[in-house]
Design brief:
Number of helices: 0
Shape: elongated
Order of helices and strands: EEEEEE
Distance between the termini: 80 Å
Strand content: over 45%
Oligomer: single chain
Largest sheet: 6 strands, antiparallel
Length: 107
């Protein structure tokens, strides 16, 4: 028999502002099971974590604000006979790059 419910949470920290693009996953959910995928973002120390957003189709466009870290949660449910399987997931993103140039003043 399988457990009736369980969550898996993966966290990836980037340490700087990151633009989130898409979340893609592959999974199998046989009869009497379900798998829900959600994500949230750690924006910064003053804002903290956003609310979880549940995604229903893969690929999903991520609408989170720019942030320093992302969490992806897979919520598994079962009647105990079968279990859903998460094969893989991928988050696409762009790291923000800040370029600071010296200021040159001419007299």
């Amino acid at each position: 028999r399988y457990a009736l419910a369980g969550d898996y949470v993966a966290t990836k920290s980037f340490g700087g502002a990151t633009v989130w693009n898409t979340l893609t996953w592959t999974a199998t959910a046989p009869g009497s099971t379900s798998l829900a995928i959600a994500s949230r973002v750690y924006v910064d120390t003053s804002t903290g974590w956003t609310e979880w957003i549940t995604h229903t189709t893969s690929p999903a466009t991520l609408t989170h604000p720019d942030g320093e870290a992302i969490q992806v949660k897979a919520a598994f449910t079962s009647a105990g006979v079968n279990t859903p399987e998460l094969d893989a997931f991928e988050v696409t993103y762009e790291e923000s790059v800040y370029l600071y140039l010296p200021v040159m003043l001419k007299n």
